[in-house]
Amino acid sequence: MIAPAVRHMAFERADGEPFAFIPGQFIQIHFNYADGKPTKRSYSVATVGTGDATPIDRIEIAVSYVDGGAATDLLSNLEVGGTVDASGPYGRFCLMDADTNSRYLLVATGTGVTPYRAMLPLIARLTRTRGCTFELVYGARNEGDLLYGEEFAAFAEANPGFRFHPCFSRTPRALPRPGDTAGRVQVAIDALKPDVAGDIVYLCGNPDMVDQSFGLLKDIGLPVPHIRREKYISSR
Known about the structure:
Helix content: 10-25%
GO molecular function: oxidoreductase activity
CATH architecture of the largest domain: 3-Layer(aba) Sandwich
Radius of gyration: 18 Å
CATH superfamily of the largest domain: Nucleotide-binding domain of ferredoxin-NADP reductase (FNR) module
Domain FAD-binding FR-type: 1-96
Order of helices and strands: EEEEHEEHEHEEHEHE
Largest sheet: 6 strands, parallel
Cofactor: [2Fe-2S] cluster
Shape: globular
Number of helices: 5
Structural class: alpha/beta
Strand order of the largest sheet: 9-8-7-6-10-11
CATH class of the largest domain: Alpha Beta
Protein name: Ferredoxin-NADP reductase
Pfam families: FAD_binding_6, NAD_binding_1
Mean pLDDT: 94
């Protein structure tokens, strides 16, 4: 458990083969409801690999527990060595080779931060090869809900082209750190003064956050193709 209601899980393919994905993609876990009806849930791959499509041995995900959720029942009771049926990778919420922008704003709430964790090696490479910078704006209710917060802070310290902005909507840290923001992610987005000519923004997490941030960025004048979105919906 990496937060009161979030479990970090790691899987290997049962056939022993490696798994290839592009940072930002997700897998789907397939299972049945109690009545036998088939369903599936999507989870972004959180594994910190090499930054490209090189195969990895472990597929890491972060799973939010939802009261009464069918996937929660499955994954909360899964023991070490247990198996699930899964497919993928899927999705295009990835950093694009064709981009020529000078700065990225990566915005997340909750488990929506997991694709950015997978992107860290690629982010380090892009800051060196293209000279672009990255601002990670991450919203959580309190410090206990800040997933992988120490990893992002350490990465920011080691990589000058990357800055980390935790946003606490309810309770700030007892010992505030540089970059901390009180309030929702929109406060930090506004403070970073998005540049309509030189920024590309990624939004991932709670649908309300994604929609509100999208509206804010459109009002500023950011071109819609420069706003890339992925919504995380807690589902039973």
